[in-house]
Design a protein that fits this description.
It is built from 10 helices and no strands. By secondary structure, it is mainly alpha-helical. The chain has 2 domains: 10-117 and 212-233, no CATH class; 124-200, no CATH class.
């Protein structure tokens, strides 16, 4: 699971708003440019982003193993045909490029998550999107970032408890059903406790947020974000 980790990397020193702008520009460009040369350039840029945030590539790929499997299935299905020759490798090229672009976007987002505290992400969104809509969106993003690792840990605990009781000897369908039901039960319990905690703390639409300020380090990142969006538009 990719989570925020305190560090002193270049990415950690940037304002979250500039990092969000870069992510938007990168995603826009990655989805707009489909040529191999563009993918090579985007791959190099992704490598720079991962190094700037000191992201462990192997651990990140393992954390994204399920989305990666889903991305890999698309090209395989596209290459299959209902008749002879049964497999057409050329048909898998475009879906493979599309899946690879999505993988690059996921890696860039992992750098953002590792280098940005949840409170800073909430502050960046709430100060960028005006009104109650921005506050609601910021609160939702903050809750997702905070509770997704908790729910993942609950699922891991359920699997370990099943394995300790020889549950891994059951069929795959039965194991998936048990984990799903128990996982949903835990999630609803945590949602109820969260609601009660928010009420007990007089949840406010206008909480005290951390101070955000652009620095000279943010200028090239914002400029690069503008260049990416412009290149995609052109």
């Amino acid at each position: 699971m990719v989570v925020y980790e305190p560090d002193e990397t270049l990415a950690h020193c940037l304002d979250p708003r500039s990092k969000l702008a870069f992510q938007f520009g990168f995603a826009f460009t990655a989805l707009a440019h489909t040529t191999p040369s563009a993918l090579v350039a985007l791959t190099a840029l992704t490598a720079v982003v991962l190094v700037s945030a000191r992201v462990a590539l192997g651990r990140t790929l393992y954390a994204y193993r399920i989305p990666i499997v889903v991305l890999a299935v698309g090209p395989l299905l596209a290459a299959l045909t209902l008749g002879a020759p049964w497999v057409e490798p050329a048909a898998a090229v475009d879906p493979a490029f599309a899946s690879y672009r999505v993988l690059l976007i996921l890696l860039v987002s992992a750098a953002y998550v590792r280098s940005t505290p949840v409170r800073d992400s909430r502050a960046a969104i709430q100060r960028t999107v005006p009104g109650r809509a921005g506050r609601l969106l910021a609160t939702g993003v903050a809750l997702v970032f905070r509770f997704l690792p908790v729910i993942t840990a609950d699922l891991r605990t359920i699997r370990e408890a099943m394995a300790a009781r020889l549950g891994d000897e059951r069929s795959a369908l039965e194991r998936a059903g048990t984990i799903g039901l128990l996982g949903l039960s835990r999630a609803f319990e945590r949602a109820d406790r969260l609601s009660l905690a928010l009420q007990a703390r007089c949840f406010s639409w206008n909480p005290t947020l951390p101070h955000l300020a652009f620095t000279r380090l943010d200028a090239p990142v914002l400029a690069l974000a503008v260049v990416l969006v412009a290149s995609a538009a052109v």
